[in-house]
Amino acid sequence: MSVTNAQNITVQTIGVGHSYSGRVALTGIDLSLTSGTTALVGVNGAGKSTLLRTLAGAQQPDMGSVRVAGLDPYHRRDRRAALIRVALMPQTATFPGNMTVHEVVSFVGWMRGLASRTAGRRAADVIERVGLATRSADRMKSLSGGMARRVALAQALVSAPDVLLLDEPSTGLDPEQRRAMVLLIRDLDATVLFSSHIIEDVLDVAERVVVLESGRVIFDDALTALAAAGAAAGRCGSGASDLEAGFLRLVSRSRGRES
Ligand SMILES: Nc1ncnc2c1ncn2[C@@H]1O[C@H](COP(=O)(O)OP(=O)(O)OP(=O)(O)O)[C@@H](O)[C@H]1O
């Protein structure tokens, strides 16, 4: 079953491949994402971060092409217009420790083309949305790791991009913060692709799941289809366990084909 709407594609990859010093990270990736939330899952080293950076215009692939709202983020003519539409929350982010939370978020808004007053206002809004309003005037060096993750999300949200790419957004958060992050992602009005190792997060948020294994897409369908595959294999009967069983079954089948 296809879960994309060909008329409303906001991000697309065509035959994308990438290697690092001969080690293949991505190969033959054809993906179309439209509005809604998609989870990107895979074991360590499957290629998730590489794919997210590639879609964000942050890492030019060796092969194939990327389109954001029909624009090529790696072509000089389109790059500026494409990059305004897409934002990446990276897996690890570093911040200048002496800048305040409000300054680091509004600065990113300004860098992404907002007038400075608008950037300041939007920064205050998104800082509130990520639950850090009371820390807005604090210096970044005074924040915990989990709070810094939420600042990274606020930076991604500040320019209200059409496409949000979130690299393991809930990693390093305590259960309460994780829950808040999940609810926030669920309410985003954008095309969202987020990577995660936490199967409950996928269950709570995503409509669609893309599974990467050794740089290839081995599954791209509705969440319910992955859970159904897991239930058939393991007869678990609980959502998260069915998803996990579906995921493990896919990965082991894919590895069986390779060996
Ligand atoms: N900058 C880099 N230089 C060399 N190899 C890299 C680099 N970044 C990633 N790789 C390699 O590319 C492959 C895919 O890595 P990537 O970080 O995209 O996977 P991932 O699915 O995000 O992993 P994780 O879940 O551990 O974050 C891995 O084999 C990794 O070792």
UniProtKB/TrEMBL annotation:
Molecular functions per Gene Ontology: ATP binding; ATP hydrolysis activity
UniProt name for this protein: ABC transporter related protein
Ranges for domain ABC transporter: 11-239
Gene3D superfamilies the record matches: P-loop containing nucleotide triphosphate hydrolases (3.40.50.300)
Species this chain originates from: Intrasporangium calvum (strain ATCC 23552 / DSM 43043 / JCM 3097 / NBRC 12989 / NCIMB 10167 / NRRL B-3866 / 7 KIP)
Keyword field: ATP-binding, Nucleotide-binding, Transport
Pfam family, any one: ABC_tran
Listed SMART domains: AAA (SM00382)
Family of the protein in this entry: Belongs to the ABC transporter superfamily.
Keyword Transmembrane: no
